[in-house]
Structure formats: C-alpha cells, structure tokens
Design a protein that fits this description.
Elements: E1 9-10, H1 12-17, H2 19-29, H3 51-56, H4 72-78, E2 82-86, E3 91-94, E4 100-103, E5 112-113, H5 117-130, E6 157-159, E7 162-164, E8 167-168
Parallel strand pairs: 1-8
Antiparallel strand pairs: 2-3, 3-4, 4-5, 6-7
C-alpha cells in the first residue's frame, strides 16, 4: 500500500532489515501483533493533558505536514487519535492515554496497539518533536542505551554529505535508542 507523501519516511528500516526483503516483510509485519515485550512497560504513560484541545486545534496553522480531507492524519483525528507520522506501510498515532497505535489502513478502520519497543520509542520521540505540548513524552536516555550507528548520534540522515531533513532515522531522530530494542514487526 502506498501512503500519501505527507510525512518523513523511516529509511532506518532499510538499514536494519535489508532493502531487498523490506517491502514484503513490512507488509506482513503490519498486520501482525507480537507477543508482549517485557520492556514495554517502561513506555506506558499517563493520559495526555489537553489531548482533546490538541485534537480540536486541527488543522494547525502552518502545519508543515499538511492536513486535508481524506488524508491519514485527518482520519486519525476523526477517530480521536493524534497523528504522529507515517512510513511506507503504516500510519502511527497516539491515544489520549499516550499509547502508540498504528494502522495499515489510511482510514484508521483497524487501529492496532504498537508492541515493538523501538517503534514505540520512535512514535514517542516524534510526537515530542512535532507537538511542543508533548515534550514530556520524549524518551529519556539510560546509561546503557547505545548511540545510533546509522546517524552516529546526530539524529540526522546524511548520505554522501547531504542531510535529508525529511527522512527519519531508525532512532527517531534522537541519536540513540533503547538498549536491546530492534526494528522489526510493529
Ligand atoms: Zn539515528
């Protein structure tokens, strides 16, 4: 499924999984809910203060990602979800309880819990980046959390000396990721 081109793409998946396998693997992964990850509890959060007001503020003036009828972001808001970002296969959002969720359907008719810890980390990092009200959701680095090898800790995707601002690194732009976490099935 091709998503509207209105958000950064997580090309870190390509780096992590191998580009030749990616398309079919991601498609299959998006409809699969993994068994509970024992590390997930770390990112369970309390309700987002002012969540309803934030949803009611759409369309946000000057929103760099755009917002229009029929877009995955508009559909998320209509379903009471805060849109965060999309990649090639899935759209990601937050619930009022700050729980990361995803769908492979741009209309959000099949909202699913996001169980992979790295994906949850990226959603929270991007939510904090994109919505100043949600800065408190930005993941905090622990001493054992490694520096991202893809961006060498910069959080930026640089290819042949060119920085691609619209491309999201596999670390969610933070330059590090939780120890033991892996990209993979959502
Ligand atoms: Zn990175």
């Amino acid at each position: 499924m091709k998503l509207p081109d209105d958000g950064p793409k997580v090309v870190g998946f390509v780096v992590g999984l191998g580009s030749t396998l990616l398309a079919s693997q991601m498609s299959e992964n998006c409809v699969k809910i993994l068994a509970q990850d024992p590390l997930l509890a770390y990112y369970s959060r309390m309700a987002i203060p002012g969540f309803r007001a934030l949803l009611a503020s759409f369309p946000i003036p000057g929103d760099p990602l755009g917002y229009y009828a029929g877009s995955w972001r508009e559909a998320a808001v209509r379903h009471g979800l805060l849109p965060v970002y999309s990649d090639w296969e899935c759209c990601y959002a937050l619930t009022e309880g700050a729980e990361p969720v995803y769908t492979s359907d741009t209309r959000w008719t099949d909202t699913l819990p996001l169980t992979n810890q790295r994906h949850r980390f990226i959603v929270l990092a991007q939510a904090a980046e994109r919505y100043p009200e949600l800065a408190f959701l930005r993941p905090k680095r622990a001493p054992a959390d490694p520096t991202c090898r893809t961006c060498n800790g910069t959080g930026k995707r640089v290819v042949n000396g060119v920085t691609y601002e619209a491309i999201l690194c596999e670390c969610g732009g933070l330059g590090w990721y939780p120890a033991g976490s892996e990209l993979g099935a959502v």
